[in-house]
Amino acid sequence: MDRVARLNEELEGRYRIGRELGKGGTATVYLAEDLRHGRKVALKLLDHADVGESDARFRREIEIAARLSHPHILPLHDSGRIDGLPFYVMPYVAGESLRSRLEREKMLEVDEAVRLCSEIAEGLDYAHRQGIVHRDIKPANVMLHEGHALVADFGIASLAAQADEGRLTRSGAVVGTPAYFSPEQVNGEALDPRSDLYSLACVLFECLTGELPFSGSAVAMMAQRVMGDPPSVQLLRRDVQGGLAAVVQRAMARDPDHRFQTGRELISALRSPDRVAPIEPTRPSLVVIPFTNTSADPENEFFSDGLTEEIIAALSAVRGLSVISRTSAMRLKGSDKDVRTIGRELGVRYVLEGGVRKAGDRLRITAQLVDTASDEPVWAERYMGTIEDVFELQESVAREIVSALDVKLSSSEDRQLSQRPHPSVRGYELFLRARQEMRRYGPGIERGLGLVDEARRIAGDSIPLRVLASTAKIEMIRSGAAPDRSGLDEAAATARAILEEDPRGAYVLGQELLGFVAYERGDMLQAITRFRAAARREPNDVDVLFYIGVSYIGVGMHDESFEVARRLVECDPLSPMSWLLSTAVTWFVGRAAEGLSAAQRAVELDPNHLIVRWARGYTNCILGRPVDAVEDAEAIASIAPGVFYGRQLAALIAAQEGRPEEALTHVEGIIGLDHHHQFHLAEPLAAAGAADRAIDLLDAAVKSFHPPFYLESHCPFFEPLRGEPRFEAIVRTARENSAALTARLTVGSGDHDEP
Asked: Which residues in the chain land under pLDDT 50?
């Protein structure tokens, strides 16, 4: 018996199912006849039983929706269950959805767009006054009946979204459609009516321009809307008046307090001839495109890269600016994208670009700051000097940018702009190359250490080089490449020495290095305390942000880790490590499916990065799809044979595919692990049936790395251990350790004062 026939048998005497009207990711909508009332209706049936909600919650949602009665809201007629699957009954609208109309016409006349969105706002305002937030406003959820707008899926939007994603609405969770998300939806925060108004503004933007306000993948769109503002609709459509453009801009303000507070306020603004004044971003945002080497000799490129790096570092230290990190900025090198596209993709208002020409000892630097909204230069200048003047010239450019954007410097920021941590340009260029190599892990660590030694021979033993050498040794310990752990003591001694030599200038580097040592030793309280101290001085330091994020994960502070992951993507959207953290935070709260797109983005940004390859493969294994992890395991093996992450992933795949002996072979002989590696090595051992070995590792790891909920229920690889007395004791220890550390860190215990 086909599905329609079975449904008609179940609904006999109540509804007669006809043809299929549409199908979404988890539900199918049918045209049906209401036999009791003699009318056509639309019956929406979820396609699977896992809706993630109890019957009580389900009935409560239906009761709320049933109370909504408004000319611009599509009402809910009825609900019930068929074979345990919930269904909803709505009026059948013979017209089309706003999505269908936009697909046909691309954009609407200005007055028509304003009228329809005003009607949607009327329906929302009514619902909001009943205490209901829609949470999924988009063109597909707006039906057009005889030319008027009807908002659909009230009272079921949250339930349908939860069925789609398999999760509830809670702190850290996300519901809705990414193209129309509000920033607070991206952040997983509690939603109020202003979130719906932001989504409606996205719909209005699309109706007016034929384009979404943000472009790219779902993950890219989410990152853009928490980092910046959309382009003005006037840039995309000339016949839109400035007042209307300002309404859209205000309705899409990142800060909910800067938006219209009610649907009624938005309606009034849309229908007012004068409309509203625009809301300016709170901080000027910019990206520095790598300066072009305009010299005849391509070997001079290190000058242009060095200048770019110094300017980014200098501007990032200014709290009044929001600056895209160097990792993301350097990925724009050689890009042919225009400034408007760059501004839109990265969510920044300004782009700094320029060139460097070297002829003998002479240097010429040109630079201009461009407004991405108007494509007009805000400031431009040319500088002349010698090679020895390069750092002074870099400082001049940075100060001119600060002045052009009318940003006020504090005394400490003014002092930082004058610092010269690197004695030579060539030494600095080697420092940058070494750091980039080390971020790739595996063989890159030793290559980076070689570059540090070369830089020391050229430039002397500067503080940044000493710190980078210590960091490399820590990474070698972490990867199992070091013969012993003495490098941790050396690194701690280096950190204390530089803090004593230069307590102000070396403060961030010293605290960061002490944080790395503490993390590797498993002292999470000390690690987070040190990283927080560094972040207070330099909140945009992406290395500090990354390790704060993974440390928060390790102690079970998941709300904090989500916030840091969001912040890292904001600062460094083109760095694979930013998206890796966005992936990792989802594992430990049982929402790995949400992190898969971020993992994919990380691999796209750097397909040869060992850790992001592992993260994508690991995510697929969590989701029970080991076959999809094979590509990443093979890639890691080809890049760095024998590295821990490749062996661990290969073992997981073999265990999940029913080859336990092969799984154990992959991880045989791995030694010298820290708490993080011990935890992840226990996973394939548990999955392959080596329960005692897995528990022994977890018993050691949990003293430092103790995400309680992942151990208790979310990690699928530990399922064979659950119920074992020793494992349950480890879970209790993790829960107790997490609670104790969270309590101490919440009150800021042990935070270090700045000098």
From this structure: 51, 53-55, 58, 155-175, 277-281, 748-755
- Beta-bridge mates of residue 149: 144
Residue 456, CB-side half-sphere exposure with 13 Å CA sphere: 14
Question: 3-state DSSP call for residue 579?
Answer: helix
**DSSP track, 636-665:** HHHHSTT-HHHHHHHHHHHHHTT-HHHHHH
Q: Which two tokens stand for residue 373?
A: 């909204």
Q: Which two tokens stand for residue 281?
A: 């971003």
d(CA 563, CA 630): 31
- Is 651:684 a contact under the CB 8 Å cutoff? yes
Least Cα distance to 677 among 722, 645, 650 occurs for 645
Top CATH class, 285-420: alpha beta
Please report, as a single letter, which amino acid is at residue 488. L
Q: Which long-range contacts (CB under 8 A, 24 or more apart) does 277-280 make?
A: 277/246, 278/245, 278/246, 278/249, 278/250, 279/249, 279/250, 279/253
Q: The tokens of 166 are what?
A: 């398999």
Distance CA 604, CA 705 (A): 29
Report the CATH number of the 3-91 domain: 3.30.200.20
Phi, psi angle pair for 523, to nearest 5°: -95, 85
Q: What is the DSSP string of 126-146?
A: HHHHTT---S---GGGEEEET
Q: What pLDDT is stored for residue 61 in this prediction?
A: 57
**DSSP secondary structure, 231-256, as one string:** PPHHHH-TTS-HHHHHHHHHHT-SSG
| Neighbour-count burial of 11, counting CB atoms closer than 10 A to its CB (0-12 exposed, 13-18 middle, 19+ buried) | middle
Query: Chain-centre distance of CA 334, in angstroms?
Result: 25
Is residue 677 within 8 Å of 497, Cβ to Cβ? no
| CATH number among 1.10.510.10, 1.10.10.10, 3.40.50.970, 3.30.70.3040, domain 96-271 | 1.10.510.10
Measured CA to CA in angstroms, residue 618 lies from 209, 346, 410, 656, 684 at distances of 40, 28, 45, 12, 11
> What is the reported pTM?
0.62
Please report, rounded to a whole number, the percentage of residues in the chain having pLDDT higher than 70: 88
CATH number belonging to domain 556-755: 1.25.40.10
User: Would you say the C-alpha torsion 550, 555, 556, 560 has a positive or negative sign?
Assistant: negative
Task: Assess contact for 311 and 181: CB atoms under 8 A.
Answer: no
Sketch the domain layout of the chain as residue ranges: 3-91, 96-271, 285-420, 556-755
DSSP assignments along 45-97, one per residue: EESSS--SS-HHHHHHHHHHHHT---TTBPPP-EEEEETTEEEEEEEPPSSEE
Handedness of CA 544, 545, 550, 551 (dihedral sign): positive
What does the angle CA 90 – CA 92 – CA 95 come to, to the nearest 5 degrees?
Answer: 130
Query: Which tens digit of pLDDT belongs to each residue from 616-667?
Result: 999 999 999 999 999 999 999 998 888 889 999 999 999 999 999 999 999 9
